[in-house]
Design brief:
alpha+beta, Alpha-Beta Plaits, Ubiquitin-like (UB roll), three-stranded antiparallel sheet, 10 helices, 35% helix, Retrovirus_Pol_polyprotein, RT_RNaseH_2, catalytic activity, multifunctional enzyme
């Protein structure tokens, strides 16, 4: 069982006497378990076919490495060793990870190196530098073709609105696209809609980063009103923390410009919970 770009040969596992000699002098230990460890390894299409099994409902195959395959232990041991064996005070035995240190401080530092990362996806991508849009969401938008129906536009806007905090003046940019959702408008995707979609893709290509919010640092709120949309940005130390925007109602579009600007201030304060 192998991936198409990888040959798996016999992989030597640690022996008990090797681990005993490596932990000499250690006083603090912890053990981690890779939950469903084998399932964390994807199979290429050729290997998936080799796991085919029959059921009363048809034939199925695994897309992840299952238990019971002869080479599974060696494959998993090689993968986990490639990730962790270069960390001092860490040993692996299939899906078990042993961490040790001469005292709590040394042990904890090694555990952080094993368990912690500098970037993680949680609603968005959290990094040491700030918050970025989830790359899978960015790719989904960049791969989107022009829409051919109102249902496809709704799906497009649903995905785009997920990234509202990362895109300035999103409501104004998407206005030509949202125009096609009106009941009295004949559906016709034109240059205006393509331009709006391309602008969103261009902004996301630049991978905007929002700084993390610090409650002890002074905050600046900047807001603006266009012909049919409201926009705002929350700022600390000249760096954006979050963007917000919305389209205006039909009656709001008839406000005087000074009233629209005041409306944008109200919108910003309500959105950022000031």
């Amino acid at each position: 069982m192998k991936r198409s770009d990888e040959n798996i040969s016999n992989y030597q596992r640690l022996k008990k006497k090797e681990i005993a000699s490596r932990v000499s002098g250690a006083k603090v230990f912890s053990k981690l378990d890779a939950q469903h460890g084998y399932w964390q390894i994807p199979l290429d299409e050729q290997s998936q076919l080799l796991t085919t099994f029959s059921t009363p409902f048809g034939r199925y195959c695994f897309t992840r490495m299952p238990l019971g395959i002869k080479s599974a232990q060696e494959v998993f041991q090689k993968r986990i060793s490639q990730h962790l064996d270069d960390i001092e005070g860490v040993a692996t035995e299939i899906d078990d990870i042993l961490i040790w240190g001469s005292d709590e401080q040394e042990h904890d530092a090694r555990q952080v190196e094993v368990q912690c990362v500098r970037s993680i996806v949680f609603l968005s991508q959290l990094t040491k530098d700030g918050v970025k849009p989830d790359e899978s969401k960015i790719k989904a938008i960049q791969d989107m073709p022009t829409s051919s129906s109102k249902k496809e536009i709704e799906r497009l806007l649903g995905t785009v609105n997920y990234l509202e905090k990362c895109v300035p003046n999103l409501a104004t940019i998407t206005a030509p696209i949202r125009e096609l959702l009106k009941k009295d408008i004949e559906f016709y995707w034109s240059h205006e809609q393509t331009k709006a979609l391309d602008e969103i893709k261009e902004i996301l290509t630049q991978q905007p980063v929002l700084k993390l919010f610090y409650p002890t640092i002074p905050v600046i709120v900047r807001c603006d009103a266009s012909q049919n949309g409201l926009g705002a940005v929350l700022i600390q130390e000249e760096q954006p923390i979050a963007y917000a925007s919305r389209s205006m109602t039909e009656s709001e579009t008839r406000y005087a410009q000074i009233e629209k600007e005041l409306l944008s201030v109200l919108f910003a304060l309500e959105r950022f919970n000031a």
